[in-house]
Amino acid sequence: MKNGKHEPNQHTPPDSDSPSSESRRSFFKATSAAILTAPAILTSRKTKAQAVTPPTSPPTTPWLEDLPQAIEPLQQTDLLADPERTPQVAANTIRGECGRNDHQRWDEFFASPQLQANEADLYELRAKANNNYIFHPDYGPQLAWNYVGIAGNGAPYFNPVFHARYGQPVIVRLYNELPSNHTGFGTPEISMHLHNLHAPSESDGFPGDYFSKFKVGPTMLSPGDFKDYFYPNIYAGFDEFPKGPDNPVGGDMREALGTLWYHDHTLDFTAANAARGMAGFYLLYDELDSGDENDPNPAALRLPSHPYDYPLAFQDKLFDANGAQFFDQLDPIGTSGDKITVNGKIEPVLHVEPRKYRLRLLNAGPRQFYEFYLVNSADVAQPFTYIANDGNLLPAPLLNRTRVLLDVAERGDIIVDFAKFAFGTDLYFVNRITPTSDPGIRVLKIMIDIPLSGPDNSQVPAVLRPIRRPSAEEIAAAPVRRWDFVRRNGLWTVNNKLVNVNSASAHIAKGNFEIWELNNPSAGVRHPIHIHFEEGHILQRFNSGIPVAVPVHERGRKDVFSLGGNQSARIFMRFRDFSGKYVMHCHNMIHEDHGMMVRWDIVD
Ligand SMILES: [Cu+2]
Prior knowledge:
With 604 residues, this protein is mostly beta strands.
């Protein structure tokens, strides 16, 4: 395999699958329809396509940069001061919004057509180029693309962390200020996906919904300076469990999500644009997971809360001999990065107090599979409590765990009690992806060297969030739909088809449920399958057709289903509350961008 020294065998196709110019040509030919509607930069780049040998990243001196001790809040902006700028149900094309479908169910959330103060949290983000980004002090300043908001002190806030709450809608106005004359990897047309909010289709960041001032994707109506994304922050099951005095949020509280993330999802360019830096966290709280470890409400879980609630995004990256990020957006196989960034930094340090922390681990891609351990300086794995997978709190915590497996886009929330260690202890997150790579590669240093600032009143209750499992009757009655994830002609397909954002491969009546069989019949390649909009329950898993146990951390709800070679799974899915276009795709973003995605629609 190419430069894949950190990659376990089963996660990477064999050498014989290495991309050839022939496979590139077949890609260009096969996706000619997509090219016609895709950003021009893709077309011009593709016609000049040449095989590129990926570099080995230059060495770096570890532990030079500190991560911030606390995640700061994103400031709201006043979108109500000027009535002509106020968010509205239809696209505000007169004031520069791109043409989009109307927001669904808008009038069920707001009292009047004119949005009033405090009815929603209102934010503005600007997608911008930054020519002075530092991944590591040993590498020079370089280009990054970020979502930029406003921090508490009024300073720019790059890839901000949202703190949202069920029952309070969020509206994000995203301005596209990326340079239209950009060269190099990435495209300046964007579509922001909030993974995996129960969001109406027009706000989901559908891959064909990309926009800029000059161009839009095939499923959009007109270009514009900005697009409004409407996040109702209701629980799934809004129609079945309507909003009312006994249910102030609306929907089924058992369907809550906590750890979400947003990233660019532009057709054919998700990997490139996310590699440029377009990704961030969206943390969602409710009465149970209230974000307050001192919450007097007896229903509250009182998990460790801000600033001890800390998200960590891991990305695999390659750098050239000059220390500039390398990414070959034409390569349908890709090469896993030999540098792993943590919240955008290579080998950073996190300083902590001797107390409990909630660490929210995210594999933000584009390609690498991780097996993380928390070890001491003698490489001995330290236990922690595992509480949430894919953003969903498990019914009960998993105690004394030492490992977090993360395929691309998967999340794992863990509680680590640093009070168990002597003050001054250093710990490390290491990635051990094969038995032979023990002790693994250290990607983050944690120094327990900040004095305790107050009592730790946080707890990890024995019961977290109840789960609604499908009944035997529902499973027996559910129609079964099969999806095969297969390589064809050097590209990646779902049921033998390359992505077509203009045509849905499934039409599902709103309110129905189905069983989806996800099948990876190939040896030697892994596909993390992501289904937008709704979580699923894994009913069964199979290795080479033989039933195997579902791992304990996968027995809650999930939105990413990691299928190793010759693995398959049966998933129970509900389709609720909103209609329109959504996708399922491989979240190995390289596979995704080279065809392995399918549109499915919910119809009224
Ligand atoms: Cu894949």
